[in-house]
Please model this.
Amino acid sequence: MVGPLWTPSPQRIADANITAFTRRVEARHRVSLPDYDALWRWSIDRPDAFWREVWEDAGVIGTPGARVLVDADRMPGARFFPDATLNFARNLIERRPDDDAGDALVFRGEDKARARVSHAELRATVSRVARAFDAMGVRAGDRVAAIVPNMPETLMTMLGGAARGAIWSSCSPDFGVQGVLDRFGQIEPKVLVTVDGYWYNGKAIPMGDKVAEIAAKLPTVERVVVIPYLGGAAGPGDLSRIRGAVSWDAFLAPHAAGPIDYVELPFAHPLYILYSSGTTGVPKCIVHGAGGTLLQHLKEHRLHGDVKRGDRLFYYTTCGWMMWNWLVSGLAAGATLLLYDGSPFVRAGRVLWDYADEERMTHFGTSAKYIDALKKIALVPRKDYTLATLSTMFSTGSPLAPESFDYVYQCVKDDLALASISGGTDIVACFGIGNPTMPVWRGEIQCRALGMAVDVYDEDGSPIPPGKGERGELVCTRPFPSMPVGFWNDPDDAKYRAAYFERFPGVWCHGDYTEITAHGGLVIHGRSDATLNPGGVRIGTAEIYRQVEQLDEVVESLVIGQDWPPGEVGDVRVVLFVKLRDGLALDAALVDRIQKHIRANTTPRHVPAKVVQVTDIPRTKSNKIVELAVRNVVHGRPVKNVDALANPEALEQFRDRVELKS
Model:
């Protein structure tokens, strides 16, 4: 068997947070935990002890109370730390009280804007935001909605609201009017926070007209706070056309900085409202609690990501993706956050690597699609950058192809913990995750996350043994702290139960088609609802993407199962859509190469019956391709919510294709 791509040094293992945590657990609980699997099993067998250790080891600021887990046999229905009180914002802001001058935040907006915020400056501005919200009558449980870039003022506003117990919900500025209304219209926000515009790929994009229309259609919004971002590039515009608008400076002006009056709240007090993709209907509003979010992120950052005080944590994300919520919690681990907004391909893809070297980045987070794109443009960061401080690279959003693992170790850095991670908006956390003390195997997520009773079930609900190469449904069989508090406007939890607990009663079914490897890692083969089934054989879409996107001619692809013969319920055939490099046309020779390459590296069942060229692949705002929407278009069925897509016009290329008539 070929060995691992990376193995941590003895020194790295010795210095890791998770090593110290393991020794702590062994000493305090008189158990022997010789390896990660033993620690993981202890964490799921003793959830009460494990989660209290996470709280204490991370130094959570708050009162934990006597009880850790109540109604542990109810899923959903279990309650973590039911007697605890804490404030999420306090745990992020007060983590480095002795380092007022040190960087809390560093920001780059493409090559158009830069900022640096010290801990003292962050604390001062958040105190002013909190007082401004007080003056507006914002109270615990009120919603603050935001259409914002990933910039310092965004984080300051979220923290100012969280200090008072307000619930934060955000979209990125590229959302269309209806996409915003489909989300914020459900949660009835009291305050809307936005910007005068934003930068993308060197272009200034004003927001005034869009914000005016949105504000007019959100009757519960009393004030609209407009942050100046474009400034002289496009001007702040006339705020009078936006109902209830006030500039950022005017919002803060009456309020001096001072000590922050944090409101201590229950562990399950709502912190965030996040949204499902909305590609199958109006987005579901997923409510996450402050305590569960904080505790999960501290576990993931400190133990799995080895984030330490003073580290410099970066994740390429928008405020419409849960990775923004994940990133900002890095402050609670003592990290400096490196924020970026705009295109990651400015300066021929070098902009983020310039940032990494110049700001001594220790943790670089991105998407699998970004890594694949770097491979396609043949960028080799290790040639032009020292990356001396870079210790860890995170990837998520879709399965990271084995070839992308190779690319990272060959072209980025050979001594690097590459952590492919997988979870979702539903849990604002991870089921599969990295571990700095374990080897990295090609194409595998390293391990199941601590405290998460992850398993893989077959269609009958029986566990599939690891290491057999068999695939099934990724499930979690026991409660965990970051399960949603519930869905907004779902008083009897009917939608919540239907979303996760209908397939296997009492067990969380996540919807990922997965296998557990012999190393105890995970391989995600795609979403279960997009799984192909030609001739009754289940095939994960990721298995095909991994092969076809190795070909230089192919930029991106999307695969579906087309009912065949048409109009009959029965078999399906595999149809592959490909976006090619500029100037290339799909001909018989390239189709033959694609089919032969897939056949040679998978099975005959994986080979597409049809290969069709398109110029664009439709995707969500968080950059995930939408197989189900394309499948509906191909079959002449309606797509329920095109406003959830970043490029809905791309769907038209898939309608009534003559190639799919025979």
Summary: Residues 153 and 227 are 8 Å apart (CA to CA). Residues 531-660 form a domain with the GMP Synthetase; Chain A, domain 3 fold (CATH 3.30.300.30). Residues 119-135 form the longest helix (17 residues). The chain has a mean pLDDT of 94.
